[in-house]
Each structure stands twice: as C-alpha cells, then as structure tokens.
Amino acid sequence: MISKQMEETLNKQMNRELFSAYLYLAMSAYFETAIMKGFAKWMRLQAKEEEAHALKFYDFIIARGGKVSFLPIESPKTNWTSTGKVFEHAYVHEQKVTSLINSLVELAIKEKDHATFEMLQWFVKEQVEEEAQANEILSKIKTFGDIPGKLFYLDHELGKRE
Ligand SMILES: [Fe+2]
Ligand SMILES: [Fe+2]
Q1: Which of 30, 33, 78, 157 is the most buried (most CB within 10 A)?
Q2: DSSP state, 74?
Q3: If you measure from the C-alpha of residue 31 to the centroid of ligand 2, how many angstroms do you get, rounded to a whole number?
Q4: Ligand 2 center to residue 86 CA distance, Å?
Q5: How many CB atoms lie under 10 A from the CB of residue 128?
Q6: What is the pLDDT of residues 41-59, one digit of tens each?
Q7: How far is ligand 1, taken at its centre, from the CA of residue 116, in Å?
Q8: What is the pLDDT of residues 21-37, one digit of tens each?
Q9: Is the pTM of this model over 0.90?
Q10: How far is 19 from 23, CA to CA, in rounded Å?
C-alpha cells in the first residue's frame, strides 16, 4: 500500500510527465513548421519517452493498490524565437522535473516507503541523462548555431535518433 499523500504526489508526477510529453510534442510541431525535420523527429521521440515515464507511474500506482487520477494537463507554450530558445526551455524544464523527482524521493524517505524509493531511483538516473542531453544540444547550438549550415547539420544529426 501507499499513503494517501504518496498516492496524490505520484499522480501529480504522472501528470507532469504527461505535460512533458505535451511540451515536447509542441516543440516538435514548432520544428515541423520551421521545416527542421530532424529536430522535429527528435522532439517527437522525446515526447514518446515522457509518455513512457507517465506510464511507469501509472503502473506503479496500480501495483501498489493506489488509485490513478486523471488531472487536467496544462497547455504547453507553442512558440519560441529560436532553436536555441527551445533547447534552453527544454533544459530548464528538465531541471524542474529533477527537483520534483528529488522531492518525491524525500517524501519516500520520510514515509519509510522503500518500494517507492526503489522505483524512483530509475528516475533519478534518468534525469541525469535528460539534463545532460538537453544541455549538450543547447551547447552545440550556442557554439555552432551562428555558423551558416551548422544548424542544418545538427538537424541532420538529430534526425538519426531512433
Ligand atoms: Fe520524464
Ligand atoms: Fe524528461
């Protein structure tokens, strides 16, 4: 069993993961409009990953005898002024998600909820990757973005994501 507070917090996190999927899909749509197909594909796959994160919480809540709640999903921002701004947003967003995961871990420790603590360790590791990934692409854009053709090269590179 999980506590009522834990159930509520896990449900909120499931909702945040769905919001993340929404946000990355909005970023994908932005790149589609800009005919940057590689960036669009990368973001669409990122949205899929976030959906999988949401389902991990969904499955866990059910496995622990909790009730899944379907909270409204916030509308994401849909417009940015540049490719760099999109990745700045993604990077800041992932940092926020990391702090939410950390708060969840702290709650699990406080409640001596070992099962939730163990499940969350996957997310702790995942967030290290998520932040590093967004930061790496952002750094590439900052370093090469002004050189003509480099953004198209990066678009080509990101389009290779499977
Ligand atoms: Fe996530
Ligand atoms: Fe993420």
Answers
A1: 30
A2: P
A3: 18
A4: 14
A5: 12
A6: 999 999 999 999 999 999 9
A7: 16
A8: 999 999 999 999 999 99
A9: yes
A10: 6
